[in-house]
């Protein structure tokens, strides 16, 4: 299965980067392409960083510079800045849960349109490989902080406020469980409907502005 990432929908973000950052983006994408190709052929556990580096035509140290652990290669994408931009564009008086729902839906819509096989492969790895699933939980911390900071800007809250941190983390944990559920059921369900079901359950947790 070809799971080569297609960054076309991120062109607007990429064109705003300097030459050095665009070069870094190309290197990250090359490493991810090589990783998904090798995993499709050899399986996750059998794929080594040395193999990835050779296939991507970079050194192992370069792979580790961009991705500290192998799990990060399949979990890291370029969508956090895009999510941040979308969240900043939402109406200031919109309930926070609805804003996050919109950001999540738009991000998933973009991934399914531009990188469907990568999303499916990543989800399968989350379901099947405990280390990938565990690292996903760790990686969510950075995304949660980005989103919490923006919500704090919009509402005048302290970004370190416990309630705000818990709220954002709860929404992202719900997204993780929705994604796992979707993958466990072999992608038969409508992913957007699953997100809406999760949001319905979380509405009572929304922090009103």
Overall radius of gyration: 18 Å
Instruction: Please indicate the count of domains.
Output: 2
**Main beta sheet strand tally, sense and closure:** none
User: What's the tally of helices?
Assistant: 11
Low-confidence stretches: 1-15
What is the name of the CATH topology of the largest domain?
Tetracycline Repressor, domain 2
CATH architecture annotation of the largest domain: Orthogonal Bundle
Number of strands: 0
Order of helices and strands: HHHHHHHHHHH
CATH hierarchy, class of the largest domain: Mainly Alpha
| Shape category | globular
Class by SSE composition: mainly alpha
- Beta-strand residue fraction: under 5%
Q: Percent range for helical residues?
A: over 70%
Mind telling me the CATH superfamily name of the largest domain?
A: Tetracycline Repressor, domain 2
Pfam families: TetR_C_14 (PF17754), TetR_N (PF00440)
GO molecular function, one term: transcription cis-regulatory region binding
Protein name: TetR family transcriptional regulator
Keywords: DNA-binding, Transcription, Transcription regulation
